[in-house]
C-alpha cells in the first residue's frame, strides 16, 4: 500500500470547473489537490464547445432565479480582469439575435424585459453595477447589415448583445491551472478516481494508478462523470442526461466574413438544436449545435449533424459557400439536469447526508460562469467550517507548468 497523500481539499476533475475552483482556493493557506485522469487539464467538455463567454444575451434564455443565470451574469464583469492577469485571449465580438418576423420580435421583447429584471435594475437579483455590463439594444435592418454584411438579407433587425466575447477555453483552463500550481496547488495528472471511502469527515480517494488521496473536503467537478463519481459515496442528489453536441468549423476564408455571433431563437421545428454561427479566436468560423441525447461513450460525428450545421450556416449567411470550406466537425458532451421539465440548472451543492462534499454540474454556458463558480464554492466551504486564511504572497499572475 502506498503512503496516502493528505490534503484539506481534493478536487476531482481538471476541467474549467475544477481549475477555476483550484485557482480561487490557491489564494488561501490550505493544501489543495486537483485529480485528473488525463495528462493535462481542460481536455474534455472544456475543449469541445462554442468558445463563448460573457453570455449576457444568452442569459435571456436562462430562467431568472436559477444558479445558471446568476453565475453567468455575475461572471461577465470578471472576465476582462482574469484575461489580463492570466494573459489568455479574450475578444469582444458581440452577439446578434436575428429578428426574422413579428413573432421573433415579440419573443425578444419578452426576453429582453426579463433580462433587465435579472440584472440591470438596481433592485434586481443579480444587479451588475453600471459600466461593467452594456445593456442590450435593438438594431434595425440597416444597422444589422452594416455590422454583418453577409447576414440573411430578409432579417428585420436584431437584438444586439455588446458584451459577448470569444476565447480559447483550453488556454483559459491551462492558465488557471498554472497559476493555481504556482500558488501551491498540487496537480495529480493521469490519475483516474475509481473508489472513494468516507470515514467520518475524512475521504480516502483511490485511483486506478494506485494513489490514495486523503482529504477533509472533496469537490466533485468531474463533468459528464459527475453522477458516477457522486455514487461512489452515495452523494448523488441530482440526475443528469448526457447531451452530445456536434459543431462544425470552417476555414479563415469564411471566418473573415463573420464578425459577430449570429443566432436565431429556435422554433418548434428546430428543437432541440441551436442555430448559431460565430467567429473563433483563431480566425475560423464555427456553426452548430446539433444536439442529441445519447450514451456518454457515443462520440461519433454523424453525417446528419454535419449537414445540419452547414444548413444552419447557409440559412444565416446565404451567400457564403460554407460547404467548400469545412475544416472539421467534432462532438462534445454537457451534463444536462432536469431533462424532465426542460429547465436546466447548474448544481453547486452539498448533499444533506454527505458532509464536506460538493457536487458541481455545469452544462450549457459553464465556461462563461466559471469565474463566479470558484467564489460560490468558497462560500459553501466556509459554511461547512473550512477556515480560510488569505495566503501571504499569492501572485495572481505567476505560472508554473502542470503537465511536466
Ligand atoms: C457543443 C457544446 C457547446 C458549448 N458551448 C459553450 C460556450 O460557448 N460557452 C460556455 O460557457 N459553455 C459552453 N458549453 C458548456 C461547457 O463546455 C461546459 O459547461 C464546461 O466545459 C464544463 O466543464 P467541467 O469542468 O464541468 O467539465 P469537463 O471539462 O468535462 O471536465 C471534467 C474533468 O473531469 C475529469 N474526470 C472525469 N472523471 C474523472 C475521474 N473518475 N477521475 C479523474 N478525473 C475525472 C475529466 O477527464 C475532465 O477533465 C458547451 C458545451 C458543448 C457540449
TrEMBL record:
Q: SUPFAM superfamilies per the record? A: FAD/NAD(P)-binding domain (SSF51905)
- Superkingdom assignment: Archaea
Classification via Pfam families: DAO
Q: Do you know which InterPro entries this protein is assigned to? A: FAD-dep_OxRdtase (IPR006076), FAD/NAD-bd_sf (IPR036188), G3P_Oxidase/Oxidoreductase (IPR052745)
Residue stretches making up the FAD dependent oxidoreductase domain: 8-380
Q: Which PANTHER family match?
A: GLYCEROL 3-PHOSPHATE OXIDASE (PTHR42720:SF1), GLYCEROL-3-PHOSPHATE DEHYDROGENASE (PTHR42720)
The identity of this protein, by name, is FAD dependent oxidoreductase
Amino acid at each position: 500500500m502506498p503512503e496516502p497523500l493528505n490534503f484539506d481539499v481534493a478536487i476531482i476533475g481538471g476541467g474549467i470547473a475544477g481549475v477555476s475552483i483550484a485557482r480561487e482556493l490557491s489564494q488561501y493557506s490550505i493544501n489543495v489537490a486537483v485529480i485528473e485522469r488525463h495528462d493535462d487539464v481542460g481536455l474534455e467538455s472544456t475543449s469541445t464547445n462554442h468558445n463563448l463567454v460573457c453570455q449576457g444575451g444568452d442569459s435571456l434564455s436562462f430562467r431568472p432565479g436559477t444558479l445558471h443565470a446568476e453565475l453567468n451574469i455575475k461572471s461577465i464583469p470578471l472576465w476582462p480582469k482574469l484575461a489580463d492577469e492570466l494573459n489568455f485571449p479574450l475578444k469582444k465580438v458581440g452577439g446578434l439575435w436575428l429578428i426574422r418576423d413579428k413573432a421573433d420580435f415579440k419573443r425578444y421583447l419578452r426576453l429582453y424585459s426579463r433580462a433587465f429584471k435579472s440584472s440591470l435594475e438596481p433592485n434586481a437579483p443579480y444587479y451588475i453595477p453600471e459600466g461593467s455590463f452594456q445593456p442590450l439594444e435593438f438594431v434595425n435592418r440597416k444597422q444589422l447589415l452594416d455590422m454583418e454584411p453577409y447576414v440573411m438579407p430578409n432579417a428585420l433587425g436584431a437584438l444586439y448583445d455588446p458584451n459577448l466575447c470569444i476565447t480559447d477555453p483550453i488556454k483559459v483552463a491551462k492558465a488557471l491551472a498554472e497559476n493555481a500550481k504556482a500558488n501551491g496547488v498540487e496537480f495529480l495528472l493521469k490519475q483516474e478516481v475509481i473508489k472513494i471511502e468516507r470515514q467520518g469527515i475524512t475521504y480516502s480517494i483511490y485511483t486506478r494508478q494506485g494513489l490514495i488521496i486523503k482529504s477533509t473536503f472533496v469537490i466533485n467537478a468531474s463533468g459528464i462523470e459527475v453522477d458516477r463519481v457522486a455514487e461512489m459515496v452515495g452523494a448523488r442528489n441530482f440526475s443528469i442526461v448526457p447531451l452530445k453536441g456536434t459543431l462544425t468549423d470552417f476555414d479563415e476564408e469564411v471566418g473573415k466574413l463573420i464578425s459577430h455571433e449570429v443566432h436565431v431563437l429556435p422554433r418548434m421545428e428546430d428543437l432541440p438544436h441551436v442555430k448559431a454561427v460565430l467567429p473563433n479566436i483563431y480566425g475560423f468560423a464555427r456553426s452548430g449545435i446539433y444536439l442529441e441525447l445519447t450514451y456518454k461513450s457515443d462520440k461519433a460525428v454523424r453525417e446528419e449533424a454535419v449537414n445540419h450545421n452547414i444548413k444552419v450556416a447557409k440559412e444565416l449567411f446565404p451567400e457564403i459557400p460554407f460547404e467548400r470550406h469545412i475544416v472539421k466537425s467534432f462532438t462534445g458532451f454537457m451534463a444536462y439536469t432536469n431533462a424532465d421539465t426542460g429547465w436546466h440548472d447548474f448544481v453547486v451543492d452539498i448533499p444533506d447526508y454527505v458532509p464536506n462534499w460538493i457536487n458541481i454540474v455545469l452544462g450549457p454556458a459553464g465556461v462563461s460562469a466559471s469565474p463566479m463558480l470558484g467564489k460560490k464554492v468558497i462560500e459553501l466551504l466556509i459554511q461547512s467550517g473550512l477556515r480560510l486564511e488569505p495566503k501571504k504572497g499569492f501572485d495572481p499572475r505567476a505560472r508554473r507548468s502542470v503537465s511536466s
